[in-house]
Amino acid sequence: MLALAIKLVLAHTIGDFLFQPYTWVQHKETHKHKSKYLYWHILIHIVALVVVLQFNFQYWLLLIIIPVSHYIIDVVKLHLNTRMNPRLLFGLDQLAHLIIIALVVKIYQPYTVSITQLFTPKTLLFLTCILGVTKASSIIMRTIISKWDLSEYNKDTTLEDAGAYIGILERLFVFMFIITNHWEGVGFLITAKSVFRFSDLSKAKDRKLTEYILIGTLISFGLAISFGLGYEYISSLIEQ
């Protein structure tokens, strides 16, 4: 079952990402279902499927279902392109393709999916910690740091919400390094961030901004480490 699923995901990756130039995407967005590249795209998917399945045509039903469903999903996506958030639409598009792949695998190699697995103590603990290092930590940091007003330093053009996303990603990395027992990764991340921040601090030449950045960084890393250690400790109790 797993081998077939991997082959189908590989074929999907080849067709959707490796052999789909951006010029094709632009042409499809403009001409939608009339674009010749939409049909070239589907043909590439068929060829990729045949190759990864090693020309085994006992999967003939699969070779019909996946390309046809892919065409339908892509056409729907193209017509919704101007009506929905493109990032959300991309995510839903990929999710739809993966669901089709899962259903096709189930046709050939039946498997069971138990939703109760999502409610095991360790899974719930993991989800709680992920929410903790992302959304909860962002709110905690914003609450703590709100006592200092540094609006004077926000005059330069910056990406919208970039700081929040960077903080979330760094905490996720720290958390994953800890629960996989790779503490050296935490040290590498701190070093890398220090290097990137050095130019900002040297240009600012302002102790107030330097202290603000250091406080934010230490709180962010501290929260991520706390959640990581908490996860490790509670996991050990669950396994006992």
Can you tell me about this structure?
The chain has 240 residues and is mainly α. The protein has helices at 2-18, 22-31, 36-52, 60-80, 86-108, 121-145, 162-179, 183-204, 207-239. Helix 1 (2-18) packs antiparallel against helix 3 (36-52), helix 1 runs antiparallel to helix 5 (86-108) and helix 6 (121-145) packs antiparallel against helix 9 (207-239). The radius of gyration is 24 Å and the shape is globular. The model has no long low-confidence stretch (mean pLDDT 88).
Concise account of the structure shown:
Helices cover 78% and strands 0% of the residues.
Spell out the key features of this protein:
9 helices; mainly alpha; 240 residues; single chain
Question: Topology of this structure?
Answer:
Elements: H1 2-18, H2 22-31, H3 36-52, H4 60-80, H5 86-108, H6 121-145, H7 162-179, H8 183-204, H9 207-239
Helix pairs in contact: 1-3, 1-5, 2-3, 3-4, 4-5, 6-7, 6-9, 7-8, 7-9
